[in-house]
Amino acid sequence: MKTARTRTVSRILATALMASALTGCSLMELTRDCDGTEARVREVGALGILDSRPDRATVTRGAEEDAPHCFADSGDVVVSTTRTYAFPGTRAEVAAHYRAAARQDGWRPDPEAEPGELSFAKGDMYLWVDFMSTGYGLTVVSYE
């Protein structure tokens, strides 16, 4: 004979399994983590586009976020890295440089980029160029 507590737990589990089946979401996906992404972290950190820069651009030192890393959040596993450059020139110079360098390296303009956003895609990776008052930053993201 089932107790009320057992029936309640059974209903909760059945509801969770039904919801995951109906939404296409697996409970296992929600527990994904960065195990096994070490090679991908190294690969993303070694991308040549990260070291490409216009003349007069200099690497900014000391930023901890520059190291390639993996993070997992709500089942999404993301490998990411950034590079930050100081640059005395214009945004137009930076944009022209990365449009040419990205194309040469096999990146294509991101079809889902917002107007005015400088964004590229290559396979399952995305490259963003973000402007700051003293330069710009590159961010590469790979969704695993």
From TrEMBL:
PROSITE patterns: PROKAR_LIPOPROTEIN. Keywords: Signal. It comes from the Bacteria. Residues 1-21 form the signal peptide. This is Lipoprotein. It comes from Streptomyces gancidicus BKS 13-15.
